[in-house]
Amino acid sequence: MGKSSKDKRDIYYRKAKEQGWRARSAFKLLQIDLQFNIFKDVTKVVDLCAAPGSWSQVLSQKLYVNDTDTKDNVKIVAVDLQPMAPLPGVIQIQGDITKSTTIDVILSHFNGIKADLVICDGAPDVIGLHSMDIYIQTQLVISALNIACNVLKVGGHFVAKIYRGKSTHTITKQLLKFFKEVTIAKPMSSRNSSIEAFVVCLDYSPTGFDAPSINSFFTEDTVNIVPFVACGEENAFDSDTTYPLQLEGEDKYEYKEPVQGPIAPPYYFADHIK
Amino acid sequence: MFAIVPLITRTDVTCVSFINDHILAGIGGNVSIFDEHLELTKTVIVFKGQQIFGIVPNGSQTKSLIYGENQLKVLNNLDGYNQIAFIAFNEWILSAKWINLNQNIATVSMHNNVTLWTSDLKVIQTIACAERCILYSAHLVNDTWEDLIALSGTVFSQILLWCPSKGANFSSVLARLSGHKGVIFAIDYNESTGVICSTSDDRSARLWIPKCKNLTSELKLEKPEFLLKCTMFCHTARVFRCLVLDDCILTTGEDSLLVVWSLDGDIIRKIETHQGASVWSLAYNRRKNVVMTGGGDCGITLFPLQQNIVQEEVAVTNSELLKKTGILSNGNIVCTSEKGALLLYDIKKRHWFEIQKHEDLASYSLLEVSKCRNLLALAGYCGSIHVYKLDLHLVHICTHVVSSKSRIFALHWLSSEQFLTCEAEGRLQVWSIIEKDISPKSQFILPLSKERWTTSSCICNHGHIAVGDRKGNIYIFVSGNLTPLQIIKKAHNYQGVTNLYFKENVLVSLGRNSTVKCYQFYKTTFSTLSLDKLPFSWITSIYEDNNNQYLLGFLGNEFVVWDYKKRRTLFQFHCGGGHRSWDFYKIDDNITFAFIKERRVNLIQFNSNVLNIKDLVNGFHFNEINGAACFPVVGLKKTVLISGGEDTTLRVSIIDYEEQPKFTTKSVFKSHLSSIRTIIGCKLKSELECEEYLVFSAGGRAQIILWNLEIVTRGEEVVPVFSEKYSYYEQLNDESETRIMDLCTIVVNACVILIAATSNGTLKIFWVVKDAGDYKIELIGDVLYKLKCILKLKNLTIHDHHVVLSTSTDGNIVFWDFTSLVNELLNNCTKDVKSIHIIKSIHSHASGINSLDYKILDNNQCLVLTGGDDNTINVALVSFDLRNAKLTIEVLSTFTDSESHCAQVTGAFLNDDHFVTSSIDQKLNISKWKVENNRFICQYKQTHTCNIADIQGMQIWKHFNILYAIVYGKGIELYQISETER
Ligand SMILES: C[S@@+](CC[C@H](N)C(=O)[O-])C[C@H]1O[C@@H](n2cnc3c(N)ncnc32)[C@H](O)[C@@H]1O
């Protein structure tokens, strides 16, 4: 297959390269922001499972505005298992977010101060057994929630990728214990055919007693109670559509290399999910 | 209420186990039980949708502990596997073991905790490992809580060794095995050898040994030490499972290979197991010498581990150098020597005899054994031919010298009475054996070519003889004509045709280019019927035995026996390659492979059991199933199912729900270039004992294939006759990445219009044309919706109008008017798609609509049921009206349910009084409905949890007044749904 075939199949992959993003995921965060305005008044953010770093790119673009005052206040901490190419203004930590030692390192960067936003785009290297893949992905969400509960200021926000499956409602139910508003968001850049979606949790309001529980198993009694929102610009591209390479009103199509290839051997932590 | 009874479940086999004389297999949340005759005797529903990862018998094999995800259950093996205890825990169980003389159970969880349980699943205590992290694998060693050792495999490439009984709440790590470069997927330990095996993401398996050779004693030392014995590479993908046996190691995983290693890390054997799908489960039974694997293709395979191959080089007494070899029907070996002697090795007496010396065969000889193996022909450089026959002994029948005195380039047995020889200048001569002599029959001439000699020949029907040459061409001759009737040029590549067979009216040719070709004789010529590519290049012959068809060939220096039906290697042996004389023969249970190596004959002998690889459960699709069509058989409780998906194969199966539900795949087709997304059928005719359908399958690369399905019934037996008729795919300037997402047909007076929904937002409209008894698809035109991927299609007729419903990623249901196009087609007018227009568009979901069904009610109203990516079910009640002969559509009311599913709704079905939805959340929901005051009312709802992950769709049909449903995705599940008294 030709090298432009992925460009044909995936408009966002192509657009990410054209616009200088390290991954197509950038569009997901941008589209979520469009709907929920999650960066409003935000200066301190933890970006979990951040490699190759397109979300961190979005964060630095949104947070480092020209005002020196706020510039000094900005703190972006990015964490991933994989090494990540450096980004100016982003503190990087290489570690497993499910391990307590990593959590300690993150907290050490927030000595006494609190974060306004915690985001997590975590995806394990899927093995092909849905039950296990979804469970492990959910553990990343729970670890991220746990970190959020440690660093987030009251009123802060939390956004995390989830894989929807038989026990999704168990997770959303738990999130509702910590946040006033929980929504399942599907950015237009995330495929219709993918089980991926994002939980957008607004207004952190801990009750004081509960710590996140690792139990995320399917229970029969619960029903789905959180709303679903599709987000994206009015005329956003549709990630399932096969677009012609040459789009009307655009510069002449030209194949472009990826912005920042993976640093670690691809098979170690590649995101295999469709 | 409804009774939803699952009848058949085929999905990933995540656990297999030998218990007593039974085999237990975990398929979804069910355990299938097979008896000693390998018959399925029972299916126990153990969990509700949780996959089973472990089946562990206690020491006396009277009870079994079953675990899956966070659930645990103990079953009584002695009373038909009834439940003794059950618990839904709050952690994911990775490994479990009966300890303390079966009084207790110990488990390790994914969070690196060990829990001690009573034998009826009450928690006694949970001990956490001091290292808090996520595990992918774990293994428990020793039989008492005091001595219990946990080996934990982390995400970060380490194996942690710790003793849960040492420590109050937290137990520290006593030793670490580091070296892997990725997640640890499996760990096993062998008590008697002290070997630990671990497998990983990094494609390797590693063997470790405690310095003192005993794990328990080593861990008691202050500084336990472990040696990395070896790192074993062979797998081409992640290694998911391993077993350490007393004398070998087994590993298997994502590449579907099972590798047998010596304890030193040398590869002993490689076995292909599950059509390239991941292997999820592995077990071994020493007494039976059987390895069992369960895979991602839904299959379970059994095969003997020890092959007990005997290899010997049988030296000739006077150390003559041998040239050619063959095996006779009594098992004795014949050879020709460099000096022209015909030698015989008596297998029983283990002794060589010189039968005859033929000076004319010195330094050049041909030796060919007839198909019955009772005749032997030798031929030489100066035109001599000698024929021998095996009666009690091998006796000389006759000798003949061809008049040209030409070298005999080749000799091929056509039957037990006839053979064909090839002389210089392409002269071919057929000979008959009459009494004690041979007499020349037909003669032919090979057309001029560089290497003008034959490599194979066989008799076909109508007096035709097929001959293959060194250049890859096949010639068809008929008696009386010197020159060929037909030349099949380049049937195989320049390396030549290796063999020809004629069976059941089909000519089969083998080549050195990995291909097997079949040709059918039609009117006057042979034309290609099929082409099959195999995973080894040098294919030499077909060996048939009972019901099995083996292909013999060479892969590099290895001799390969390949199962043609099951498509896998059964036996592989290093012999030096195909450039040698060899023979392969089976008598009773003994198989002999004789070959010449360095001018000496080598014999490989083994029991035919070695080739006896058995599928306990046959493999099915090895990836997600995206589309399925069901064809209930008239008069029988059977349904023909045609399914297709990501693995690009189309499979024809029979579902039998007469008494014991059975599922059998009849054939597999590999015609699609890319994944299959949708399959639909349309009925052509229905007669007693034969129904005929047109079937369309479509998917990636914008390919659509038209098939013909005939369902023939003979008594209780159903024979689906399925054949490819036409493949449509646009060879654009570049490879098309457009996917066909769904299809529907409008059938009016035998005129079939096919509509395809594409990922580039257009509807493609085709016309199915009948052309000289065959069908083809002709494109009429494209209609652009918008740049939104269209997902589903359905059509309906109302007020004499043809309406097509489409749904897409923008959450809209669109009604298209096809009436004019249909009329133009019926009246043979010029057809174009300009008349197709949108009547109405209803926005009903926040994003993509993945399932669609409708039901036309009285008074021209219609219910449209949709399920979306937004986890929501929507029902729109619409009314159709004719105003000035124009169809208009009005939405009267809508009903929305966003609570019942928590993932994409991918299946929807609506009939007179029920509606059913299915989703990726593995729920199948059924409700009763009614319409009152133009409102849709859902009456009561019932939920069933499915065993199928990633459900992509659902099909429901009524047969003998019973509702049957299948859901498909990662596997397939069939249910019988009946309404019970409230
Ligand atoms: C989809 S990618 C994230 C893409 C990123 N948001 C961006 O925009 O470039 C998922 C990431 O999760 C990371 N990951 C998976 N498991 C993790 C863990 N336990 N701890 C930290 N990172 C993890 C993977 O290494 C991978 O880089």
Identify the strand order in the major beta sheet of chain A. Answer: 3-2-1-4-5-7-6-8
- Span of the ends, CA to CA of chain B: 5 Å
Mean pLDDT of chain B: 92
- The shape of chain B is flat
Q: CATH homologous superfamily of chain A - what is it?
A: Vaccinia Virus protein VP39
* Beta-strand content bin of chain B: over 45%
Reported for the largest beta sheet of chain A, the result is: 8 strands, mixed
Question: Which parts of chain B are unreliable, with pLDDT below 50 for 5 consecutive residues or more?
Answer: none
Mean pLDDT across the residues of chain A is 86
CATH architecture of one domain in chain B: 7 Propeller
In the predicted model, the low-confidence regions of chain A spanning at least 5 consecutive residues are 265-274
The most extensive interface between chains reads: A-B, 54 and 71 residues
Please report the distance between the alpha carbons of the first and last residues of chain A.
18 Å
InterPro entries (chain A): RNA_methyltr_E_TRM7, RNA_methyltr_RlmE, RNA_MeTrfase_FtsJ_dom, rRNA-MeTfrase_E, SAM-dependent_MTases_sf
GO cellular component, one term (chain A): cytoplasm
Family (chain A): Belongs to the class I-like SAM-binding methyltransferase superfamily. RNA methyltransferase RlmE family. TRM7 subfamily.
Catalytic activity (chain A): cytidine(32)/guanosine(34) in tRNA + 2 S-adenosyl-L-methionine = 2'-O-methylcytidine(32)/2'-O-methylguanosine(34) in tRNA + 2 S-adenosyl-L-homocysteine + 2 H(+)
Write up this protein:
The complex is a heterodimer of chains A (274) and B (982). Chain A has nine helices and eight strands. The longest helix of chain A is centred in the middle third of the chain and has 22 residues, at 130-151. The radius of gyration of chain A is 18 Å and the shape is globular. Chain A is 31% helix and 20% strand. Chain A has a single domain (5-271), classed as Rossmann fold (3-Layer(aba) Sandwich). Chain A is α/β, with parallel strands linked by helices and 274 residues long. With 982 residues, chain B is an all-beta fold. Chain B has a domain at 851-982: 7 Propeller (Methylamine Dehydrogenase, Chain H). In chain B, 1% of the residues lie in helices and 61% in strands. Chain B has two helices and 84 strands. Chain B has a five-stranded mixed β-sheet, with no helix packed on it. In chain B, a hairpin with a 5-residue loop joins strand 35 (366-369) and strand 36 (375-379). The termini of chain B are close together. The model of chain B has no long low-confidence stretch (mean pLDDT 92). The chains are: A alpha/beta (274), B mainly beta (982). At the A-B interface, helix 1, helix 7, helix 8 and strand 8 of A face loops of B. The structure holds S-adenosylmethionine (SAM). Residues 22-23, 25-26, 49-55, 79-82, 96-98, 121-124, 140, 269, 271 of chain A line the site of S-adenosylmethionine. Residues 22-23, 25-26, 49-55, 79-82, 96-98, 121-124, 140, 269, 271 of chain A line the site of S-adenosylmethionine (SAM). Chain A: S-adenosyl-L-methionine binds at residues 53, 55, 80, 96, 121. Chain A: It catalyses: cytidine(32)/guanosine(34) in tRNA + 2 S-adenosyl-L-methionine = 2'-O-methylcytidine(32)/2'-O-methylguanosine(34) in tRNA + 2 S-adenosyl-L-homocysteine + 2 H(+).
